[in-house]
Amino acid sequence: MSAKRSPPQKSKPKPRRRSASPTPKPPPVVAHSPLGPVDARQIHLVRSRGTPKRGGGQGGEAWTIEAADERAGTVFINMIDEPPLGSHASLQIFLNRESQGRQIGRHAYRAACLASQYDVIYAHMRKSNIASRRAAEEAGFEDVTPEDHTQLILRFIRDGPQ
User: Fold this and answer.
1) Which residues 6+ apart lie within 8 Å of 70 measured at CB?
2) pLDDT string in tens for the chain (162-residue length)
């Protein structure tokens, strides 16, 4: 008589080991502009076509930021569909290194929101990005981050908070 063999059992995957060291974060960028703040009246947005991922896609908008007649960066809005908000207008801003720390961001955030076709706009950023958070809040954004969410979510409503 032959012994009956049982089918080979699949081994369960081992649980992932947690790292003992924290995930390295990008180094902080310190804005050291000897030029000082730019007057809000010297900051202008010039509408541009954008690129597919930077305001040029369906429902997107893009602008070049000019401060004192010099290019200072770009700001754009994309329509995205991501949790926890679903489909929404999402604003991103990028300032040239020389333009950082000169209060250009706060004026560009607000100018882009007012020039946009959208009444409600969200900004997503790392919770550690204090400078961007401060600039967005100065422009009228408010923190609406869900308690368990990893990124900071700020919201701008054209006619103020509701």
Assistant:
1) none
2) 556 666 666 666 667 666 677 767 666 656 566 778 888 899 999 999 988 889 988 999 999 999 989 999 999 999 999 989 999 999 999 999 989 989 999 999 999 999 999 999 999 999 999 999 999 999 999 999 999 899 999 999 998 554
